What does this fold into?
Amino acid sequence: MIRYILSRIAIAILLLLGLITLSFGLVSLLPGNPAVALLGDYATPADIARINAQLGLDKPFLERYLDYMGRTLNGDLGHSFFTGSSVSGEIWTRLPNTLVYLIPGLILALLIGMGMGTLAAYRYGRGADKAFTAGVSILMAMPEFVLGLLLLFIFYQQLHLAPAPLGMLSSSDIPPPKVTGSVALDAVIAGQWSAVQSIMGRAALPIVTMGLFFAAPFGKTVRTGLLQILNSPQIEFARACGLKPFQVFRYALSDVRGTLMTYMVLLFAAALSGAAIVESVFSWPGVGGWSLDGVLKGDVPVIQGFVLIMGATSLLGYVLLDTLITLLDPRTRGNILRKARKPSKLRPAAPGPVPAPTAGSAPTAGPKN
Amino acid sequence: MRDLVTEFHSRSGVTRALHGVSFEVGANEIVGVVGESGSGKSTVVRSVIKLLMPPGRVTAGTAEFHGQDLLKLPERQIRRIRGREIGFVAQNPFSALNPVVRIEKQFSNIAKAHGVGVDAGSRDRALELLASSGVDNPERVMRGYAHELSGGMAQRVVIAMALYLNPRLVIADEPTTALDLTVQRQVLDTLTRLTKGSGRSMLIVTHDLGVVANYCDRVLVMYRGRLVEQGPVSQVFVQPKDPYTVSLLNSVVQPEAAEALLATELSKSRSI
It folds into this structure.
């Protein structure tokens, strides 16, 4: 089993190297010259050459690649062309801000999706199911910024329940002393409950936006998966044995659990890339809005850093998922244990239930993209 | 006398799967249901225990089981009857057993569902049933998962689960179709032995007339949602009344008939 986990980690490392290469290559292929973007359209060729030399862009491709690979593996993601701030430092302070609303948002999405999807599957073809299907269609047709703006319109402009979408802390809040780098965590540590409250109040609408936006595809998956298993011979037999509805539901859930877990990780990856839009709407000081800004300006190290972090996070998620699913299912688990016991017996490696994603698809994989 | 009278119409949309089917299963009796695919065999038995797939619905008739009309019972009560009073043997054991739950746990879940205490005694009963169903090493099977079993063994486990709470009626929906020919006989032997031995009744759906001839007391012949003929096996098979039964019986390759045909053909060719 340890052997299996090690093999997964080895694959993950290979994919990570691929990801670094990709983030380097993709950005090099981007149109536009950063020096021109920095200096404006009226820059003289001499100025451009000077900036290129400063940024190391005049070196040959291979040298830049090796240099980039080496620096990245050492944890140095470079400095922003425009602000000069360290990319890894920026990510380190901004990523926690993103997670403050992203994780509760995803949990909300899972709860809503699970509840609604289950209800719809059990009430298949009836009113509740039809209402669910219609709701999902509407939500899935709506881009997340529309949803965010709609929520703002209702809860901020009309009902005055939510604070203005002007970031995480209001100007009257005193930022907590820096301990972990995450403003929310620092506020908790410092015991500044008014700041915590302020953050939570401001995070509410982004959380609801994320929750509703991702509840739709997740709920749809739950419904489809459950419908399939509920009409299967397995559940028929379970019911024929007189199992209680709750037991039957647990049997059904054990069947769709792999699919749902896969989808959760997929949603997480999609949510990370979707964060850019939500953060723009709510002026949230997270990693998404910052990277969007970087993309618009052509700030290469920022784009590379963002792609890397999103990709690596998704990669980690997939490796964990793959291992977990394989170990949870006795059928695949048995294979691994047997393989570990008799290593001499040659047997083609059983592919995991989830194909390992290619590095390129990881950061952008999602139902909407 | 234990009676089961069923008479109903089921409607899937506008399709009527069964057009008023009436029959009964007596105590200690094995009744076979035969007919071609789509004739409503499986629908009949599923209607009895209310396990029809969503659009299917029994719209008329009664299914009386020990003085209770099963069709009028609320889901809550019919659930208590399923598994405890009426056991169900599924067609394909691998799609019926839960792949990720240990066999032992699946047994104890059944016990729990019916409020039967889960203790050493209930475990022993499961082991005993597995052993008498012909499972080798029941102890190991109990601790394992469905995918570790062969088809025949898995079906024996399904039979043991169906009989776990000592039901008075067993419904078997093509219990051997998914199995190898060589295993089919053993499984059927087991199933009928365990049924007859303890005064249970069985309703067995099959399209294998041989199964009916060898194991059943009475037979129901179904065609296009109608019961075209029913009666003791000896009577229906020897003197079929309905033309469909005749054609069904003729469709079976009978060794004696084939030999006779061959003999006449041979004598013909010799005379030429």
Summary: Chain B touches chain A through 38 residues (CB under 8 Å). The CA atoms of residues 258 and 264 of chain B lie 10 Å apart. The first strand of chain B starts at residue 4 and ends at 12.
